[in-house]
Prior knowledge:
The chain is α/β, with parallel strands linked by helices. The chain folds into 2 domains: 7-251, Amidase signature (AS) domain (Amidase signature (AS) enzymes, Alpha-Beta Complex); 253-296 and 382-414 and 424-477, D-Maltodextrin-Binding Protein, domain 2 (3-Layer(aba) Sandwich), CATH 3.40.190. The protein contains 16 helices and 11 strands.
Amino acid sequence: xxPPRSALDLAAAIxxxxxxxxEVLDDYLAVIDAHxxxxxxxxxxxxxxxxxxxTAIDQRVASGEHPGLLAGVPVALKDNLCTRGVPTTCSxxxxxxxxxxxxxxxxxxxxxxGAVMVGKTNMDEFAMGSSTESSAFGxxxxxxxxxxxxxxxxxxxxxxxxxxxxxxxxxxxxxxSIRQPAALCGVVGMKPTYGTVSRYGLVAFASSxxxxxxxxxxxxxxxxxxxxxxxxxxxxxxxxDRPAPRVLSVLDEGIQGMTVGVLTEFLEDADADVVxxxxxxxxACAAAGAxxxxxxxxxxxxxxxxxxxxxxxxxxxxxxRYDGVRFGLRVDAxxxxxxxxxxxxxxxxxxxxxxxxxxxxALSAGYMDAYYGQALRVRTKIIEGFxxxxxxxxxxxxxxxxxxxxxxxAKVGDxxxxxxxxxxxxxxxxxxxxxxxxxxxxGDDGLPVGVQLLAPALAENTLLRAAAVIEAAAAxxxxxxx
Length: 482
């Protein structure tokens, strides 16, 4: 059988006994075997463990038990999510041989919901990148055009969903690392409100910015996965102590009476074909009964500068633990200091070293207030700017990325140009708000375009209702570039 692309349909078919979890898994594994050699979405495919999980799901169905909301749904996990006994590398040589002794909370919740983990996906090393080219294991390629990048840092997860290797993947979003690759690969990517999904077991990059979220083929599937993985976790000190979100049930409520603000600063940064798709999405919102207006949040233009001080500073602190002593790679030397230096020199790639050095400098004596402290003040200004916008608007709309997918190698030699790939996504991370990228037609080159919706903290219900409207409009367009 050909597995349904919708996780909702797939789980329902397995729960009802219309499909076997083992047969569905084997179909997906066959697609992986046939095509991942070219795409390189996965660092590791856990086929034996996945078959054992799928067999257990079929046994639960046969015995009349409820196997869970994600019964038998294959899920790919970004390789910075801890999985007990399974190599977790962050696509870095420095974690060579490390097998976590515990599962991330999101992994536990997926298992409890009946999901089947099919493997660990490639990523930019330690989630630092926008193209999945900084992986120590080589780049992932965009399934729509293998000469192009899939985006990053969750490029392997986005490519896995786009290529049909799994209907669902998890990624992490620190400055756009779910939404940007989702846009470039033509899938849905959601960053929840900071604190609504536990970060326990996510290998940290920048702890005040990192957030786990789903990549899927539909908005409904993203809502389903958010319902499963969201909610308070006492193991995460930044987890919000609130009831678990339930958003799937509101998707059909529409946006009649909402106000949608088209964010002018994001349009200024985007190519003409991307702007055209964004304006079409705004027209679709108006046709669905929303009031649409252009709105300016000037503070978002400061986001890139603030982010590239705050995130590297936090990374400098978080990555200090990789010392060659406790876990992962160890390069022997004549003394501890030399061993530590040699291990970090060999284990970290160029982009990770660049950000560690930048962050260490920003935190150094005499410079901390001028750089890191000032960046935190700018972050507050961005939060205040969004707050003013949300007094007028329910959601904000703009491009997810300034362009469609660029060629592999095109920006590797120019870090600033690469960083600009996230100019539309970073402000949301600094504010801690939810956002989602929805595929909306294609650009002049025929590659996918993603439009982005932003909402205030804890407004996932509103965000996903608007996303469902835009998704329906995109389906009616049929991929038109007009």
